[in-house]
Amino acid sequence: MSDQLTCPICGHTEMFTLVNHARSEHKIGPDVFKDRFPEQALCSTSFASFLAQRSVHRAGNVLRYQVSVAGTPMTAQYGVDHPLIPESDPTFVWTDTCRDVAEAIEHNERAFVYGPSGTGKSSLVREIAALTRRPVRRVSLNGETGVGDFVGHWTVTENKQTVFASGILPQAMREGYILQLDEVDAMQPEVGFVLQQILEPGGHLLLTDTGEDVAPHPEFRLVATANTLGFGCDSGLYASGTRTLNFSWLDRWDVVVHLDYLPAKQEADLLRSRHPSLDKSFLKRVVKAACDLRKAHAAEQLTTVITTRRLLALCARLERGNEFERALRVCVLNKVPQEDAKVVQETFDHHIGSLKNQSPTA
Ligand SMILES: Nc1ncnc2c1ncn2[C@@H]1O[C@H](COP(=O)(O)OP(=O)(O)OP(=O)(O)O)[C@@H](O)[C@H]1O
Ligand SMILES: [Mg+2]
Fold first, then answer.
1. Integer distance in angstroms from the first to the last C-alpha of the chain?
2. CA of 270, closest atom in ligand 1
3. For residue 314, which of 325, 327, 323, 329 has the smallest C-alpha distance?
4. In angstroms, what is the span from residue 4 Cα to ligand 2's centroid?
5. Pocket lining for ligand 1, CB < 6 angstroms
6. How do residues 86-144 score in pLDDT, each as one tens digit?
7. Nearest ligand 1 atom to alpha carbon 95
8. What ligand has the least distance to the C-alpha of 273?
9. What is the Cα 142 distance to its own chain's centre?
10. Nearest bound ligand to CA 95?
11. Quick one: which of 56, 78, 343, 347 has the most CB atoms within 10 Å?
12. CA distance 305 to 316
């Protein structure tokens, strides 16, 4: 089927659609065109069905269309340029759990994502934003971030005028981007109480300093990430700095999603796609060692856990030609408590064996 169309006014031929040609050359929009040339299609049949399948429609200067993100249909935007829209990472590995976070962002549900360190919580939110072309701002709510930074504070300008400088939260609510709150289990309780207002559906923010009522932009989204669910931490890994979260606060999040380490095959695929020169079977063994150590941690035989982040750092060093023992020491062993180091070393010895003296590149 041909996608070529001929303009009934000037005879110019164009692929897929005459909309842009009619606008730029003849200064007529689609509605006028259809009135004047009811027999002439504006789009080829196959292009029209492509647009219909993806629900492409125009909103001002932006095209909106449907994309599947981890199996969830999401609305993406074409034609928006914003410094907070991240670049997509083609090596990102999608799991079934990612779907719940994608769905929450699409349908404006407040999502609380928790799980061990380095399981891809921050990367996931960023990746969803990249694929749907939404601006995202990430802010760490560790104990250092107070209400003044979050909501705003009074300040004196160069002209000696006292003005209220809007904080991170009202800015995100007005401009309509995803606000990703990291480490919410370490936030100051006062910040939690401020958030409580906007966790309600369509919740407004009242700026008590100025009396201003901030309504959420329709595209404003809120996602929290944390290592614990706010009931404390049994393993002790995240005990420092984390707090018990108020029950009614936690209850207001629409969805709570638990993210864990990737299944072994997918984790090995991730290491390989980031470090393609490393041997596939060698990477499988590295992941096996990490999985065994994670199981030992779950069984409380090990206080620490081996994160994907550490494996990626190890692979980066190996790819640069460092010998295995040396790379393992600086990327893994030196980060674990003394009492764990022996078990970690033995587990890697067991899985890597004699391969550690060979070049790990494929
Ligand atoms: N599913 C995944 N796909 C691709 N990369 C991943 C994935 N999961 C983790 N990573 C990689 O692991 C590293 C850590 O990920 P990230 O910072 O997103 O973890 P996190 O869960 O937010 O950790 P923390 O709790 O310490 O903040 C990053 O380099 C990230 O790219
Ligand atoms: Mg994170």
1. 46
2. 4
3. 327
4. 49
5. 91-93, 117-123, 225, 227, 262, 270, 308-309, 312
6. 999 999 999 999 999 999 999 999 999 999 889 999 999 999 999 999 999 999 987 67
7. 1
8. 1
9. 19
10. 1
11. 347
12. 19
Three-class SS of the chain:
CCCEEECCCCCCEEECECHHHHHHHHCCCHHHHHHHCCCCCCECHHHHHHHHHCCCEEECCEEEEEEEECCEEEEEEECCCCCCCCCCCCCCCCCCCHHHHHHHHHCCCCEEEECCCCCCHHHHHHHHHHHHCCCEEEEECCCCCCHHHHHEEEEECCCCCEEEEECHHHHHHHHCCEEEEECHHHCCHHHHHHHHHHHCCCCCEEECCCCEEECCCCCCEEEEEECCCCCCCCCCCCCCCCCCCCHHHHHCCCEEEECCCCCHHHHHHHHHHHCCCECHHHHHHHHHHHHHHHHHHHCCCCCCCCCHHHHHHHHHHHHCCCCHHHHHHHHCHHHCCHHHHHHHHHHHHHHHHHHHHCCCEC
In the reported structure, the alpha carbon of residue 44 is separated from the centroid of ligand 1 by a whole-number distance in angstroms of 43
